[in-house]
Please model this.
Amino acid sequence: MERASKLIRGLGLPGGTISAEELACAAWPEAVGKKIADHTRAARMVRTRLVVEVEDCIWQRQLFALTPFVMRNLEKSLGAGLIEDLEFRIVPRRREPQRAQAAAPGLFSAADEAEGIADPVLRGIYRASRKRAQA
Model:
Protein backbone atom coordinates (compact mmCIF):
# COMPACT_ATOMS: atom_id res chain seq x y z
CA MET A 1 0.00 0.00 0.00
CA GLU A 2 1.38 3.38 -0.97
CA ARG A 3 1.69 6.08 1.69
CA ALA A 4 -0.57 9.12 1.32
CA SER A 5 2.33 11.57 1.30
CA LYS A 6 4.03 9.75 -1.59
CA LEU A 7 0.76 9.57 -3.46
CA ILE A 8 0.06 13.29 -2.95
CA ARG A 9 3.59 14.16 -4.08
CA GLY A 10 3.11 12.08 -7.21
CA LEU A 11 -0.11 13.84 -8.20
CA GLY A 12 1.78 16.82 -9.57
CA LEU A 13 -0.32 19.41 -7.75
CA PRO A 14 0.75 23.07 -7.86
CA GLY A 15 3.66 23.90 -5.56
CA GLY A 16 1.83 25.64 -2.70
CA THR A 17 -1.05 23.20 -2.31
CA ILE A 18 0.29 21.16 0.62
CA SER A 19 3.44 22.29 2.40
CA ALA A 20 6.09 20.05 3.88
CA GLU A 21 5.12 21.38 7.30
CA GLU A 22 1.50 20.29 6.88
CA LEU A 23 2.60 16.83 5.73
CA ALA A 24 4.99 16.45 8.66
CA CYS A 25 2.42 17.59 11.23
CA ALA A 26 -0.20 15.26 9.75
CA ALA A 27 2.20 12.29 9.82
CA TRP A 28 3.22 12.82 13.47
CA PRO A 29 0.35 10.88 15.15
CA GLU A 30 0.88 7.90 12.87
CA ALA A 31 4.63 7.90 13.48
CA VAL A 32 4.39 7.90 17.28
CA GLY A 33 1.07 6.19 18.01
CA LYS A 34 -2.08 7.30 19.79
CA LYS A 35 -0.76 7.37 23.38
CA ILE A 36 2.21 9.58 22.59
CA ALA A 37 0.19 11.73 20.20
CA ASP A 38 -2.26 12.47 23.04
CA HIS A 39 0.57 14.12 25.02
CA THR A 40 2.40 15.81 22.15
CA ARG A 41 1.71 18.01 19.15
CA ALA A 42 3.80 18.58 16.03
CA ALA A 43 3.81 22.38 15.89
CA ARG A 44 5.92 23.51 12.93
CA MET A 45 8.90 22.89 10.70
CA VAL A 46 12.07 24.98 10.89
CA ARG A 47 14.01 24.09 7.74
CA THR A 48 14.32 20.30 8.10
CA ARG A 49 13.67 20.17 11.86
CA LEU A 50 10.22 19.24 13.17
CA VAL A 51 9.36 21.13 16.37
CA VAL A 52 7.17 19.06 18.67
CA GLU A 53 5.39 20.45 21.74
CA VAL A 54 5.37 18.17 24.81
CA GLU A 55 3.62 18.48 28.19
CA ASP A 56 6.62 18.34 30.53
CA CYS A 57 10.30 17.49 30.89
CA ILE A 58 9.58 13.80 31.46
CA TRP A 59 7.91 13.50 28.05
CA GLN A 60 10.74 15.54 26.56
CA ARG A 61 13.42 13.16 27.91
CA GLN A 62 11.54 10.03 26.94
CA LEU A 63 10.90 11.22 23.39
CA PHE A 64 14.49 12.36 23.01
CA ALA A 65 15.52 8.76 23.77
CA LEU A 66 13.03 7.50 21.17
CA THR A 67 14.17 9.93 18.44
CA PRO A 68 15.82 7.31 16.17
CA PHE A 69 12.69 5.15 16.16
CA VAL A 70 10.39 8.11 15.52
CA MET A 71 12.66 9.35 12.72
CA ARG A 72 12.53 5.92 11.10
CA ASN A 73 8.72 5.91 11.25
CA LEU A 74 8.55 9.43 9.81
CA GLU A 75 10.86 8.43 6.95
CA LYS A 76 8.58 5.48 6.19
CA SER A 77 5.58 7.83 6.06
CA LEU A 78 7.07 10.86 4.35
CA GLY A 79 10.17 9.66 2.58
CA ALA A 80 13.82 10.43 3.30
CA GLY A 81 15.12 13.98 3.57
CA LEU A 82 11.94 15.82 4.53
CA ILE A 83 12.66 15.71 8.29
CA GLU A 84 16.26 15.42 9.43
CA ASP A 85 15.90 16.28 13.13
CA LEU A 86 13.34 16.55 15.93
CA GLU A 87 13.16 19.22 18.63
CA PHE A 88 10.99 18.70 21.70
CA ARG A 89 9.78 21.88 23.43
CA ILE A 90 7.93 21.96 26.72
CA VAL A 91 4.56 23.70 26.34
CA PRO A 92 2.11 23.02 29.20
CA ARG A 93 -1.43 22.09 28.28
CA ARG A 94 -3.86 24.94 27.97
CA ARG A 95 -6.43 25.30 30.70
CA GLU A 96 -9.99 24.42 29.87
CA PRO A 97 -12.47 27.31 29.86
CA GLN A 98 -13.99 27.91 33.26
CA ARG A 99 -17.63 27.12 33.73
CA ALA A 100 -20.03 29.95 34.42
CA GLN A 101 -20.78 28.66 37.93
CA ALA A 102 -17.14 28.72 38.95
CA ALA A 103 -16.60 32.18 37.45
CA ALA A 104 -19.63 33.84 39.11
CA PRO A 105 -20.81 31.79 42.10
CA GLY A 106 -23.17 34.49 43.40
CA LEU A 107 -25.41 34.29 40.33
CA PHE A 108 -26.72 30.81 41.09
CA SER A 109 -28.93 29.66 43.93
CA ALA A 110 -27.52 27.75 46.86
CA ALA A 111 -29.94 24.87 46.20
CA ASP A 112 -27.75 23.88 43.24
CA GLU A 113 -24.87 23.19 45.63
CA ALA A 114 -26.90 20.84 47.80
CA GLU A 115 -28.12 18.82 44.82
CA GLY A 116 -24.50 17.98 44.02
CA ILE A 117 -24.19 15.94 47.23
CA ALA A 118 -25.05 12.31 46.49
CA ASP A 119 -25.53 11.11 50.09
CA PRO A 120 -29.03 12.16 51.31
CA VAL A 121 -27.95 12.37 54.98
CA LEU A 122 -25.00 14.64 54.22
CA ARG A 123 -27.20 16.68 51.89
CA GLY A 124 -29.66 17.28 54.76
CA ILE A 125 -26.85 18.23 57.15
CA TYR A 126 -25.46 20.64 54.56
CA ARG A 127 -28.84 22.30 54.01
CA ALA A 128 -29.44 22.65 57.76
CA SER A 129 -26.03 24.21 58.38
CA ARG A 130 -26.47 26.57 55.42
CA LYS A 131 -29.86 27.64 56.80
CA ARG A 132 -28.33 28.34 60.23
CA ALA A 133 -25.50 30.33 58.65
CA GLN A 134 -27.91 32.50 56.66
CA ALA A 135 -30.19 33.20 59.65
About this structure: The longest strand covers residues 40-46. The chain has a mean pLDDT of 82. Helices lie at 4-10, 20-32, 34-39, 57-65, 67-78, 100-103, 111-115, 120-134.
